[in-house]
Each structure stands twice: as C-alpha cells, then as structure tokens.
Design goal:
3-stranded antiparallel beta sheet, 47% helix, binds adenosine-5'-diphosphate
Length: 213
C-alpha cells in the first residue's frame, strides 16, 4: 500500500496520517518531520532553515534525496504513507522514477484533504505538538494535557502562515492535475471531527477487513 496525503498546511495530513498508518500497519513518512528532526540535530543547512522558518518551500533536490533514502528502509517493504511529499511536479516525477527503480512499485491512491482557507489559518495558529511523542494538538479543538512539553512551530506564527498558504496554492495548481490525469486523485472533505475525516478516507480506499492489508 503506497498512499499520498496532499493538502494545504493545516488540512490535517499529520493527524490523518497517524490514524491511517495505524490502521494499515505502514510507516508515515513526513518530509516536514524529517526536516524538523534535522533542524533539531543541527544538521540542516542554514539557508534551508531560513526558508523553512519563513514558510517557503525547500528546493526539490533537498527533499527528493530524503525520500529516496527513507523508502528503501526495511519497514517500507509493505508500503508507506507520504505526508507532505510531493509538493511540486518535479518531486512527483522524481517519486515515479524512484518507485519504478524499486522493482516497479506504484502509488495506490493520492488523497487530497479539502479545507477552506479561513479554517486552515485558525488550525495552524493554534497548532502545538508534543516535543517528545510528536502528538499533534490544537489549543481549542484538541487541547494538550497540562504539563505537556509543547513545540510551537516557527512557521505556524501568523506572519508565516499566509505565505505558506500562498506557496501551497501556487504549487498545487500543477500537482493536482498531474495525479488527476493518472486517475489516482481522490478529494476528501477535511472539515469535521478527525475520526469522521478518517472514515471518509477509508471509504474512498475500500476498508481492510482487519488492521493489516
Ligand atoms: P497538516 O499536517 O496538514 O499541516 P495537522 O494534522 O498538523 O495538519 O493539523 C493542523 C492543526 O489542525 C492541528 O492543530 C490539529 O490538531 C488540527 N486538526 C487536524 N484535523 C482536525 C479536524 N478534523 N478538526 C479540527 N482540528 C483538526
Ligand atoms: P504542514 O504540515 O504545515 O503542511 P510540513 O510539516 O509538511 O508542513 O512542512 C514544513 C516545511 O518543511 C514546509 O513549509 C517547507 O519549508 C518544508 N518542506 C516539507 N516538505 C517539503 C517538500 N516536499 N518540498 C519542499 N519543502 C518541504
């Protein structure tokens, strides 16, 4: 099972990825999480760090290499879920080439989470994540427990949020038709409780009878 989650920042990709990966028993691969881990470890180049914090997209070559290395690890043998990659057509083309070189693997489905912009801004500005577990919270809809050690992403501050949403709109203009033409794209309404959104995704995918494939 190779799944892609696409959608603007704040659409709920990370939240849905965790629920879907548990269900299908496949790992979640998030370029955003990998880049933030590199930032914490001090291994992310300064020019990339500045782009990330201001809400811009990194150059394609900076993320394609991450995905090439990660998808050949043993836990990806049964498939994986990509969250936040690809974001541009050159990244999507690189992914096709990469999968072809891995013995002719193919994408099963691309899920696009649709959420109106005003709600996205509200979700991003109130997002907090647990530093240790990576659990995603929302200060109003899903408040963190007292005493949790929280991270407030630099790019979730109001100054960066608008730029990120604009960057997404500019990029999807081309990415969504790319998958639409391949008949892989499924649009899912991302408004509602997280569990309701998961049910919509599962009904698009065809539910597995158990936790596995
Ligand atoms: P993305 O990975 O697409 O940027 P996240 O999964 O991190 O999105 O969610 C962004 C914010 O919105 C988080 O604060 C999360 O708790 C909240 N959120 C996610 N899904 C929902 C939902 N269905 N309803 C309300 N809030 C949500
Ligand atoms: P969100 O969950 O809000 O959609 P991510 O966590 O996926 O955001 O990504 C955070 C930041 O990391 C992006 O704003 C961008 O700077 C960088 N990034 C992540 N994935 C990619 C990608 N596929 N291409 C370019 N930049 C990326």
């Amino acid at each position: 099972m190779i799944l892609l989650l696409v959608g603007p920042p704040g659409a709920g990709k990370g939240t849905q990825a965790k629920l879907l990966c548990e269900r299908y028993g496949i790992p979640q691969i998030s370029t955003g999480d990998m880049l933030r881990a590199a930032k914490r470890a001090g291994t992310l180049e300064k020019r990339y760090l500045d782009i990330m914090d201001s809400g811009g997209l990194l150059p394609d070559e900076a993320v394609i290499g991450l995905i090439a290395r990660r998808t050949v690890e043993p836990d990806c043998g049964r498939g994986f879920l990509l969250d936040g990659f690809p974001r541009t057509v050159p990244q999507a083309e690189a992914l096709d080439q990469l999968l072809a070189s891995q013995g002719g693997r193919r994408i099963d489905a691309v899920i696009q989470l649709d959420v109106p912009r005003s709600l996205l801004e509200e979700r991003l500005i109130h997002r907090r994540t647990d530093k240790g577990s990576g659990q995603i919270y929302h200060l109003v809809y899903n408040p963190p427990p007292p005493g949790a050690e929280l991270e407030h992403r630099a790019d979730d501050r109001p100054e960066a949020v608008g730029m990120r949403l604009d960057a997404y709109e500019a990029m999807t203009a081309a990415l969504l038709p790319f998958y639409e033409e391949k008949k892989l794209l499924h649009r899912v309404d991302g408004v509602g409780k997280p569990e309701e959104v998961t049910q919509r995704v599962l009904s698009v995918l065809g539910r597995p009878s158990s936790g596995g494939e």
